[in-house]
Amino acid sequence: MVVRLACALAVFFNSFAFAKPVTIAVAANFKHTLELLAADFQRQTPQFNYRISSSSTGILYNQITHGAPFDLFFSADDVRPKQLLAAKLAKQEMAYAVGQLVFWAPSYVDVNGQKVTHRALWDNWQQMYAYANPKLAPYGFAAQQLAEQKDGDTKVVVANNVSQVFQFVSTGNIAAGFVARSIQTDFEGSYWLVPQGLHDGVVQHVALLSDQAQAIEFYKYLLSINAQTIITENGYLLPKT
Known about the structure:
37% helix; Molybdate ABC transporter substrate-binding protein
């Protein structure tokens, strides 16, 4: 009897050890925060096994609609998860974070040699800058709205996603760009944290795409105090309930 019980327990625990990982698609801006959330959940639930794929929201959405086998989709907008739910490609969806847009120019200083951390940085900007592809990335769409309100014909470099914009600016290849606050919560040099009311809000939704048990548990975990603390500590606001 003892031998049978031991064998049964071994099979039980091995089923977790070799369980198919939860496959998670995440918009580029949220990748780092998602990694922190997954690690925290794994500390609470050691059998949690996952695999993360990151790209722009539009690219991931296209992959999902063409049959990519993801269990969860962390979008940078609310539109795509709602479309997946309407098309019966998602089981549930909900808001998990509100993104904050930042115009960042790390090397810029004013006439007094001081960094600028207010709207004048953007209002007076006349050099080339970058933002993410507005057709694929909600942060890019928000940045484009600001660009359309600004007079002038300053050259714009369109990147694949906000992570690529950050790379362009941080390496000095481009002097400035619109990035997500979550990518670097403590910005060096000059920057402007764009008020939410100046563009369509970047309200980010997650879609539960499968009935995988661990995916469901992780989806529920996002509403926990632990999860919401990690989200806010990494440059996001919480959605209004």
